[in-house]
């Protein structure tokens, strides 16, 4: 055994080793040889060398055997969840494919630095070309993700550039998978669209680097449901909700429903201390279900998703109501569905489950509304409102890096659900134009806007003209102008190329790669960016900077 573990030189001699009785080690039963070759100290390179030493060991190390299964599980434990427990698998083939994917990904990432900042500063564009070879391998997507996570989890002090781009690629790939899932979600019939699942997809898209799953969220809600049942049992030991039953079976008896709602409020708001976040209402974390469950605080719509789901698990049907400024749930007080708004009790999940009449709902927002606002809405409309909240938070962010990312993410989500919304298509085009990314996509968006609403030709024409100029400039860059800070006309320029800076207002980190003694942008850009509100306005040095999120900005001194 010592010879087996002694290193590469000893492994080549394994077939020649004899035990005390003169037997060769290769004469041992296959099960025992497999046990020896699964010793933790042996690497995949060792096993490959051993399997070439003789036919006997080659047969023991066959692709579907325990030796290569052990090597695969030892090296990539995160991938085991993708294999069924008793599945017969060619582990050697899986090992080779996973190894090839890893090498190809590292090769692609290493070429990112120059292309990302010089050619096309957008992950989506670069990946379109870089991952064609990966697709030709026919490898599952989770192999790519596992390699990226391996890079991110390696020694923190090494490979920082590799990790930077690995993080960007992982962010992008996970978001693309969520968009596919979201399109599949809305491809179902409305009665098959679960609000909880849709809200989790939104959460996953906006937080692609977090480990969020519908299973983990559902498991936490099951724990809360168990607590509610325990409370319910004290008041009514024979309550039908205590029996294991299908979630789709709803109770008709209003007395039994009231007992469920009472127990739900007691557990959620008194025992677990869930509450509406009044002090930090516009924090995007209030909209993400995994954060709402962790922090036990949210806004009306996110708390309504939880409340609605818990009630349904216990046999009570509640419906979402897209009430102005304050999302609500409604609960019918008749045995049959009714169109009369006064036949419903309205539940304020933000206000600790308080039950309101139709008139009291108007007091909640301070003005009267028509009966249309009391109607139940579809899951799609509910999710659009949730994404709309995130969009508004992104707009309020005053140009910070996080707000730009939230704005991009929420626009992607909104336009996936409602692809023909001209207002948000135009906002997306302007955002991409402002950030200097993906000019070809900007042109596609503008063409789509023109087809949907020809009256937008003014805004579309301006953006088309300047986007084409950007593409032309990129394909035929002008000779760099030689400027010296020491020259008299540049005496006010304080920062030199190459300095790493932090933006005072927006807070992003960046590196200076160029400067102008005065702002060189057009009047419309100056007006849009409110440059005149700055001290000295456009008559001060402006710097071209590369921001840590991969975008280029033009910032005043």
From TrEMBL:
It comes from the Eukaryota. Signal peptide: none annotated. Transmembrane segments: none annotated. Residues 492-557 form the Hemimethylated DNA-binding domain. This is FBX21 protein. The lineage of its organism: Eukaryota, Metazoa, Chordata, Craniata, Vertebrata. The gene is Fbxo21_1.
